Amino acid sequence: MVWKPLRMRRSGIQRRVTFPRLKEGEVAITWIGHASFLVQFTDLNVLIDPIFADWLFLLKRVKRAGLKLSDLPAADLVLVTHAHFDHFHRPTLRRLAAPRIAVLPWGVGDLAEGLGFDRVIELEWWDTFARSGWQVTLTPSKHWGARMLRDRHRGYGGFVLEHQGRRIYHAGDSAYFEGFKEIGERCAPEIALLPIGAYHPEGMRNVHMGPEDAVKVFGDLGARWLVPMHYGSFRLSFEDMDEPPRWLRKLAHRNGLSERLRILEEGVPEVF
Fold first, then answer.
1. Which parts of 109-268 fold into alpha helices (H)?
2. Closest by Cα among 154, 145, 68, 74 to 106
3. CB–CB of 67/14 below 8 Å?
4. Quick check: 11 and 62 in contact, CB under 8 A?
5. What confidence tens digit (pLDDT) does each residue in 234-269 have?
6. Fold of 28-260
7. Is there a contact between 36 and 51 (Cβ–Cβ < 8 Å)?
8. DSSP class of residue 202?
9. How many helices (H) and strands (E) does the chain have?
10. What is the C-alpha to C-alpha distance for residues 223 and 191, in angstroms, rounded to an integer?
11. How many CA atoms lie within 13 A of 232 on its CB side?
């Protein structure tokens, strides 16, 4: 008998994206997939945790990125929340067109060497880096930042990006913790990009959040819009791949949040 490897077909469509023309104060958010986003203002393009890999070691991507990397506009700013391979993907970063500034947590800057950035900034929790009318703040999270098992010196967190009067919060990876209330009080984010996948079995919720946690975090932050992420691209845990958004919709309806929930389609820009 000849053994044949199991073949898994990737779902999802890669679109040729037409990015919207924005007015001052508008922001366009394109979910690339997993925790990857393109955030656009009239004068600023920001990539957050970009990853276009089909494979992460033995882990196969089960849903394609929503657009091709070659279709991205040049990034003025790249934010990476922590050094885990599904968030800090060196091959993707190396292929970005003329990236200017990378902002990373403490202890992660050495991983960005040789990737073509003009400048690499490391932040501690609550540090802010500002330039040309925009600013970004690294916020705490309940996770960990090691690239390998022993390099525990590396930091982690989320980011609040502020520009043209808008505030967008990307939580990175995190379990629920009381610190989200402080993030809401200190940063007052308007749009919250929150992870909702990789929560089963129960022990995973020591470092990740599920839909119930995301709804609680959304309340703690006091944000206007909830945009879910970190689901559907890689099988990181044992819940069904389509369970997180389905469960989140039910919870939003139950809590009167349906009109404030924006579930994005990969590769489709949404204007806020």
1. 179-187, 211-221, 243-254
2. 154
3. yes
4. yes
5. 998 999 989 999 999 999 999 999 999 999 999 999
6. Metallo-beta-lactamase; Chain A (3.60.15)
7. yes
8. G
9. 4, 15
10. 6
11. 25
| H runs (alpha helix) in the chain | 90-94, 179-187, 211-221, 243-254
pLDDT of residue 2: 35
Asked if residue 105 lies in contact with residue 156, where contact means CB atoms within 8 angstroms, the answer is yes
Q: Is residue 5 pLDDT above 90, yes or no?
A: no
Q: How far is Cα 262 from Cα 26, in angstroms, rounded to an integer?
A: 16
Question: What average pLDDT score do residues 31-53 get?
Answer: 97
Give the three-state DSSP class for 206: helix
Residues facing residue 130 across a β-bridge: 135
Q: Which amino acid is at 251?
A: L
What is the side-by-side strand order in the sheet with 36-41? 119-123, 101-105, 77-79, 44-48, 36-41, 28-33, 270-271
Question: At 221, is the secondary structure helix, strand, or coil?
Answer: helix
Map residue 136 onto helix, strand or coil.
Answer: strand
Query: What integer pLDDT is reported at residue 3 of this predicted model?
Result: 35
CB atoms within 10 A of CB 123: 21
Which of 246, 243, 255, 264 has its CA nearest to residue 219?
255
Rounded to an integer, the average pLDDT of 50-67 is 92
Note the pLDDT tens digit of each residue in 112-156: 999 999 999 999 999 999 998 999 999 999 998 989 878 889 999
Is the pLDDT at 33 greater than 70? The verdict is yes
Average pLDDT score, the chain: 93
What type of residue sits at position 89?
Answer: H
pLDDT confidence of 10, banded at 50, 70, 90? Answer: low
Q: Is the dihedral of CA 259, 260, 265, 271 positive or negative?
A: positive
Tell if the pTM clears 0.85, that is, is over it. Answer: yes
Q: In this structure, what token pair is assigned to residue 73?
A: 């506009």
Dig out the tokens for 209 from the structure: 């959040």
